[in-house]
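I am writing to request your help with a piece of structural work I have in hand. The matter concerns a single protein, recorded as an amino acid sequence and a row of backbone structure tokens. Could you please explain, in whatever detail you think fit, how the structure tokens follow from the sequence? Thank you for your consideration; the sequence and its tokens are set out here:
>
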Amino acid sequence: MIGRLARAMNQSASSEDLTPAQASVLAVVVARRRIRLSVLAQVEGLNPTMLSRVIGRLDDLGLIERVVDERDQRAVIACATPAGKAKSQRIREQRTRELLAVIELLPASTSEILLTALPAFEELTDAIRSPAMSGLSDA
């Protein structure tokens, strides 16, 4: 069910000229503020080649920047730019608007249950993307 819902919400990313993978990676980078690319690959479940393509595109678009980790010169860290943070916020807001519009079409009892549960889903999403959940340390 969560996968189906996620696929249905992917239109929000394309409205911002990003693929779902690019929007997801950007959202993680924004949420974490600074994240090693190796950790990002694990969090997103992407192989290094695919992550490199996604990060390269986000960098080309000026949405993230890559910097060398001061503590480990071999590691690269991704950070969101102000433009990246703004785009991620727009995607999130668009998804929220779309979700609320659909919820309004449902029976009142179903809508009430879903609206009551939204803060819990928000907390769940934040927890899934948190460093503690992944068991991986950030930069």
In short: The first helix runs from residue 2 to 9. The CA atoms of residues 22 and 66 lie 15 Å apart.
